[in-house]
Structures are given as structure tokens and as C-alpha cells.
Amino acid sequence: MELRPGHSALVTGGAAGIGQALVLALARRGVFITIVDFSGERGREVVSLAEKEVAKFHKTGLEFPPVIFVKCDVTDSAGLAAAFEKHVETYGGLDVCISCAGIVTPIMFHKDKTDGSKSWRRAVDVNFLAVISTTQLAIRVMEESEKPGVIINVGSASGLYPMYADPIYSGSKGGVVMFSRSLGFYKRRGIRVNALCPEFVQTELAAKVDPKFIKLVGGYVPMEMVVKGAFELISNETKAGACLWISNRRGLEYWPSPDEEEKFRVHPRTTRRKYVDVAPVNIQIPQSFEKIIVHTLSQNFRSATSVVRTSLRFPLEANDVLLKIIYAGVNASDVNFSSGRYFSGGSKEIASRLPFDAGFEAVGIIAAVGDSVKHLKVGTPAAIMTFGSYAEFTKVHSKHILPVARPDPEVVALLTSGLTASIALEKAAQMDSGKTVLVTAAAGGTGQFAVQLAKLAGNKVIATCGGKDKAQLLKDLGVDRVIDYKVEDIKTVLKNEFPKGINIVYESVGGDMFDLCLNALATYGRLVVIGMISQYQGEHGWKPRNYPGLCEKILAKSQTVAGFFLVHYARFWQQHLDKLVDLYTSGKLKVSLDPKTFLGVHSVADAVDHLHSGKSVGKVVVCIDPSFGHQSAKL
Q1: Which among 54, 55, 457, 543 is least surrounded, fewest beta carbons within 10 Å?
Q2: Assessment of whether the complete model's pTM goes beyond 0.85
Q3: What is the CATH classification number for the domain harbouring 353?
Q4: 3-state helix vs strand vs coil in the chain, percent to 5
């Protein structure tokens, strides 16, 4: 959500500490605010401060107060409900709700001899149960107004790991974290619920903690960082049911990391999501079709391949699917495949596989299915990421079918290129927000998605490219700093403008570019290698390079160099493809297709040459069946 003047927010615990800071930060955006707090005197003081900020955006007289205060104990459900009613009555709806009210226990747990009604039970009521009530009321208001909204529940880093001095506070904040994360499904209704978990901030609450302990965890977190985290959760529409951990040691970091979460995630055993947004299409199945085969091992794709005609054999195997291909995607690694680099064994063993089918990815229409295939329908769109995509028809096992909405070229771009960017940034780069991200060859098929996903995650993005057309594309995609190596020296720009180094590098060029990126990597930085296109078509093929001193270099700064090969992450393909399609159809993700047209199987070699010429901009796609491609409307 992009906050604008006139949006409204309700903040509990808004009269002091983090709550007060967030109220004033919202007011500086021109947001109308309801402050809910137990302290009337402080509440009215904050109202006065916030009104001055909001007034800067609303010069003319308003018919209602821009900031209102409701004195209320958040554990009083009736009083809390009345506060929401007053907010809606005043502002007509609710865009943001933030639960900030919180207390520590006045008696140490192991010394508490009371019934807990005025100590630990009271802390649980304020810190956790009131958050549940506030969240429930906010969801009702947002659903009734049929407007999207954001709910932020302020937890604590003490809810992520034990706070031995106050187990009740730690436990109640842990409840806030898991409660908020469990509500991620409300995103389907346009409502995002997230948890904000800062370490110690210099407030009255934190003043009760032993200063020695605060020093051990790196000192107080600046309030500005907490505010930045809250606005990150408000603006980042890719996050729902997320927990943002804020610390001096690691900055802003989503918790748990994607890899940690994956260890414990239970995947329901359900049928894959089906996209049937178009009427089934009748396919005329010929007796034979054309395809591209690799007949000689060579990094020169044109000389290694040829177009052959082959017959269609029926019946299909029980679990097979016949796909009529409409569009096929071109990849830099097509030349690696044609030279046999993706097969194990010696040169003679690899040569014994010849001839083999070429092409990695395509979209089309299901033309026929085997007897055991019940979940896929003839005439519906589908995508594949298997060998043999440079063909008019291809047979694959049904497990390789990825249901899609339409057989459009934009969907092809989301396959190998989009999935590489999405999965590599999440799994290998462990990308969160607030980082500096460098993407090399950024105007290519996968780079265009890497820069956009990094921006959507709340990062500063640097991109390299060669040529003014590519530079303009990247600027249009929102890149913060475009480096056109034809007019600027990349090394000089990185050294002068980013002296602290780069946190994440998404690298696909290899060679000298890899060296440059490694030298520019910050402490704790992660460099992810998704390719090395500069080394694919050397005079003697793919010649490995030596990197002396690599271990010493990454050890000195606790850096990580990670390789990423998409086939090793097949279990995530459908999940990430769904996400990419959702981002694309909602207009949050753009797909750039190279403008040069390639029609039919016989144009594939030209398309591969075009990609490796360095002149392509965006994803290079071949329309295998021009007659069908021109008929269908775009996504």
C-alpha cells in the first residue's frame, strides 16, 4: 500500500514510545489518525503534535478533526469496539491498524506469589489478548468497507527468542508473532496482517531492562529504524503473515529465513492449482511434426542442431501428455545444452546420447492425455520446463505439466527466467528488505525480473547493462542506479557511490564481472551465480577459470558465494510461478519481451544468435505456431 494524505490509521498504545513515534510518522504523511491509549494526558499531547503535521497536507478547513484520541484500556473489549466505531464514523473506513500497547510484568515470575491478576495475567491480557481483539475488529471494519488494509501487530524480538528475565512478556509477544503469521491467508481478501519485532528501543518500557543485557545485544535500536520497518510492512504488498525482525546487528530481516521456514512447512497433498481462464481449444493433431535436435556437440548452436520431421505415435503412455507448443523461450544456456555440458560422463558417453531434443521451456495447449491423467483437460493451456521444447508438439509425463492461465509469450518469460530470479533471490540470496542489491546483465530475460523483485522486497537496486535502450528499460522498471558499461566504468561507480559494499549480487555474466562483483561485496554479503554467459561461447568452449585467494577473501568478510541451478529447485516451480503470475496480472510486475520477431521452428537458431549478440532487450521468445499466436489475446 502506498500511503497517501487522506488515508486513515488507528494506533493502540499511541500516546508513548513506539506507538507515539508511529503516530507522528503517519501524521507526516498526511494520514488521519485515531490514538487509543490509557493515558489521557499523554494522548492529548500527542494529538496536538500530530495535528500540526497532518495540517501541512490539508490546508483548507476540514469538517472533522484530523487526529482524535480515545481513552481506553485495550483489555476492555467494549471500549475498544467503541474506538473503532468512532474512527469509522469520523473517517469512513480504516486503511492501517497498528497494535502497540504493551507492558512488562511488575513482579518477576519466580517471585510472584499472587494469583497473577495484577501481574502476569494482566501482561498476557494487554500484550496478547488485546492484540487478538484489535486485529479482529480491524478485519471486520476492512471487510465491511471492502477496501484493502494493513494490520501491524507490534511484537518483540523477545517473541522470537527467550527473554529469561520476563518469560511472560516473552511468551505473550511470541503469541503475537505466531498469531499474526497465521493470518497470512487474509491476503486473499485484500488484508495483510504482519508482525513487527524490534529489539530494545529506548522507551520507558525498555528502561526497566538491565543495561548490561541491552549492551550485549548491540545497544538500543534507533526509533527511526522501527518506523522504517513499519512502513516497509505497509508498503511491501508481497508480504502477508510476515514477521519483520529489527536489530542493530542485522538491520531489517524477515524471520524466519525462507530456508528455515521450508524445513517445517507442511505441503498439503492436493491437486495442483488449475488455471482455466479460457475456453478449451480444439487441436488438430497431425501425423508428423517438426522439432530441433542436437546432432553434433558444439557451443555453436546453429552448427550443432538441425530441424527434423518425426511422426506422432499413439496411443500415449498412461501418464503422458501431448502438448501443442505455441511459444518457446530462448536461453543463454541453450549453447551449453548443445555442447553437452548438462550431461554427466565423459565426452564419448555424452556423444552416445546423440541425437537429443533441444529447448528448455514452452507454453501451449494440451492436445491429448494418457488414460491415467485425470486432473488435466484437453484443450487447456499449460507450460513445460523440460528438454524438447523447440518443437511443434512434445510428449511429457503429466508431472511436468505446469497449469497456466493462457499460452502467452509473457508466461514463457516467467518460466526459466522469472523462476530463476524468484527462487534464487529467496533461497540462495536469502533476500529480505533494506539491502543494496546488484543485478548484472539486468536488461536480459532473467535480470529484468531480479531487479523488480528486489525492488518489491524493499531494497535499493543497482543494475548493469550495455546500451542506452537497455538502460532506459531498467529505469522504467524502477532501478535506483543504472550503470551502462558502455559509457561508465562499473568498478569506479561501485567504489565511489557504494563504498560500504553490496549486500546481494545476482550475477550471470561471469569472467571479469564476477571478479568485480566479488571485490564489491560487503561484509556478510551474498553473491549468487546464476550463469556466466561471457564464458559460454569461447573459442575453445567453456574453459574453467581459476580464482586464487577466493577462500581467504570470503573468510575475511564472512561472505557467501552461492551457485544456483534451477533444476535443483523443481519442487518450488509451481509455487513461485503462481506468485509471479499474480504479480504480473495485478500490474506489479512487468514483462519485457525482445521486440525482434522469430516465427516457426526454423527461426530458433536465429533467435539463439540474437540473444548471444548482446543486442537483445528483455526475453527472447520464438512463436512456434504463428497462426495460433496471432489469434490469442494477451494475459
Answers
A1: 543
A2: no
A3: 3.90.180.10
A4: 40, 20, 40
